[in-house]
Specification:
5-stranded antiparallel beta sheet, mainly beta, 7 strands, two-stranded antiparallel ribbon, globular
């Protein structure tokens, strides 16, 4: 008899969006929340989850922040609906704005007039 036990790091996007003016790039942006965690599986069935960390990514420039686990859990449960700038702890800050195609989400350079992936006007 043999056992299949695996330990992996997973990422889960949390249904949360908040518009804001970005303190890093100065553009109008949006907070997007996701969680990372470690998972132990037995025969490909999740058994234990540990090490949950909550991250906020700004859609305008791609800056990345962590937030406290308590706040992340509250937002995940729907108990809290806003994130204040004082709740953010910087991980990676980009001071220049990144552009994405509104149609397909492809990362664009600022000089593009049309998306090179799908051809839609930027």
């Amino acid at each position: 008899m043999f056992f299949v036990v695996t330990s992996t790091t997973k990422e889960k996007e949390i249904d949360f969006s908040q518009t804001t003016i970005c303190s890093a790039c100065g553009a109008y942006g949006r907070y997007e929340l996701f969680m990372t965690y470690n998972q132990l599986s037995l025969f490909f069935i999740p058994v234990i989850k540990w090490g949950r960390k909550y991250y906020v990514k700004l859609r305008c420039c791609g800056s990345l922040y962590t937030i406290d686990s308590d706040l992340g859990r509250d937002i995940e449960r729907g108990e809290k609906t806003t994130i204040n700038e004082s709740d953010l702890h910087p991980v990676r800050i980009n001071h220049r704005r990144e552009y994405f195609c509104a149609n397909c989400g492809y990362k664009l350079s600022s000089e593009y007039e049309y998306c090179p992936k799908c051809g839609s006007k930027v």
